[in-house]
Amino acid sequence: MFLPSYLWKSRGYIPLLATIVFTLSLHHVRCAPQTFADIDVAVDLNKKGTIARDRGDLAIAIECYLQALAIYKNVAPGSRDVATVLNNLGVVFRSRGDLVQAEAYYRQALAIYETLKPDSLDVALILSNLGVVFRNRGDLPKAEEYHKRALAIREKQAPDSADVASSLNNLGVVLRDRGQLTKAEEYYVQALAIYLRVAPSSLDVATVLNNMGSVDWGRAYYDNAMRYQRHALAIQEKLAPSSLGQAESLHAMGSMLFDQGQTAQAILCYELAINTFERQMRLLGGDDEVRSTFGAQYLIYYRDYIEALLVQKQYERAFFALERSRARSLLTMIAEREMVLDSDLPFDVQRERKLNAAACVRAQAKIARLIPTKDATEIDQELAHLHELAVERDQIAERIKRASPRLAALQYPQPLDLRATRRALDTDTILLSYWVTPTATTLFGLVRGICG
Questions:
Q1: Going by C-beta distance under 8 Å and a sequence separation of 6 or more, which residues neighbour residue 149?
Q2: What is d(CA 51, CA 68) in angstroms, rounded to the nearest whole number?
Q3: How far apart (Å, rounded) are the C-alpha atoms in residues 398 and 196?
Q4: Comparing 58 with 212, which gets the higher pLDDT?
Q5: How large is the average pLDDT for residues 325-334?
Q6: Nearest to 377 by CA among 388, 361, 389, 366
Q7: Residue pLDDT, tens place only, 153-191
Q8: Long-range contacts, stretch 304-307, CB < 8 angstroms, 24+ apart
Q9: In sequence order, what are the beta bridge partners of 223?
């Protein structure tokens, strides 16, 4: 919601290149097509990075953006394209929880944009993104300051636009965090009204609906809050299935259901949220510290899930969820080694897996380009195609399991459940596993064949 996709071709460089053609030697004229080719490569890399980022594959997104940045810095240093890629890198690092690196990229982009055109929408974009960084750090006054600066520019340069709605939503989030729920709601209502005019049924609408739901929940308007969450989730399931946004909506809905005493339904929402989050973890990239920082933001998913299971006295499932939360980082690290064993697979299985992945990228890229209000039929067709590809991907996974048990064990790892853990223990060994929360401590005691 904070990042438009800047996918410019080589316009902006033509006047410069024309000057080179008329003033430099023939040797330099011959080099000009190569410069154009480099720019086209950078444009393509930036586009691929954005697609990868939108589907949660942050490691690939960073790789693409860094390659694009290197090209742009070489052929057009200090240009708007350099700033755009710097901003994109800031967005990805912010998504990974690396706020220091994100701020560094944003400030580099801001310096370029302010040099090129102060008080432009580009400047407002960076101010907005810096506001998000400060909010994530807990510096709410600083976050509010940056968002208000961004809003002032956007209202002047593009009144009643999606950019204005974005700033209004961001200010609503900050004021909600500061406990000013009535003022937060005012900003959300204004943002939603704009989005419904310019981008109805978009993910931006889902984001504002989620935020409005959280405000109503805080004011004990439970029925309204659930309606907002269900509406948001329906949009996310259609436009961004298996995304972190969907995971956050599922977790929020689970918490609402749990607070209302609907524990069984809450457990279903929590489990779906965790499944979605763990799929994203495998695509995160980065080192152990990056994964740990990112994962720490979502430990609450496991905490709430385990608490709900304990309320229902589902001790086996609670133990499995506990071990699952502890094994998450290890499983991610192990799964990253899967390419070492790719040679175990028959060539046709390798080829089908790569073709399936490429087809998914193309379908997701096409959906990203379509407009919900104009291209609803095409969007539905692409979503149906994605479902077919998901079924095909499951079939390929089964073939991998049969063809290479070693690779399957790494690519589809499973933590031990309670029964499997008990079977693995020696007869004279007891396993004690603790689950500590601010209000209670649960102790799982396991010996071979017995649990308590």
A1: 124, 127
A2: 14
A3: 43
A4: 212
A5: 57
A6: 366
A7: 999 999 999 999 999 999 999 999 999 999 999 999 999
A8: 304/251, 304/254, 304/255, 304/258, 304/266, 304/270, 305/254, 305/267, 305/270, 305/271, 305/274, 306/435, 307/258, 307/437
A9: none
Q: Which of 95, 14, 12 is nearest to 49 (CA)?
A: 95
Structure tokens at 379: 């969007």
- Strands of the sheet containing 430-436, edge to edge, are 430-436, 441-447, 450-451
CA dihedral for 272, 278, 284, 289, sign (positive or negative): positive
> Strand, coil or helix: what is 367?
helix
For residue 51, name the pLDDT band (cuts at 50, 70, 90).
confident
CA dist., res. 117 & res. 136, Å (int): 28
Ranges 50-64, 157-171, 210-224, most confident: 157-171
Q: What is the mean pLDDT of the chain?
A: 79
Entry pTM: 0.64
Closest CA to 152 of 163, 139, 137: 163
Please list the alpha-helical segments (H only) found in 13-57.
14-23, 26-54
What's the confidence (pLDDT) of residue 369? 60
340-349 own/partner pairs: CB under 8 Å, 24+ apart: 341/404, 341/406, 341/407, 341/410, 342/407, 344/403, 344/404, 344/406, 344/407, 345/400, 345/403, 345/404, 345/407, 346/403, 349/396, 349/399, 349/400, 349/403
Cα separation, 356 vs 221, whole angstroms? 45
DSSP 97-158: T-HHHHHHHHHHHHHHHHHH-TTSHHHHHHHHHHHHHHHHHT-HHHHHHHHHHHHHHHHHHS
Cβ(207)–Cβ(176) below 8 Å? no
Query: Is 409:344 a contact under the CB 8 Å cutoff?
Result: no
Which residue carries 């329906």 as its tokens? Answer: 234
> How far, in Å, are 283, 340, 403 from residue 345 at the CA level?
21, 11, 6
| Measured distance CA(15)–CA(61) in Å, rounded | 31
What is the distance of C-alpha 403 from the center of its chain? 32
114: tokens are 């302010």
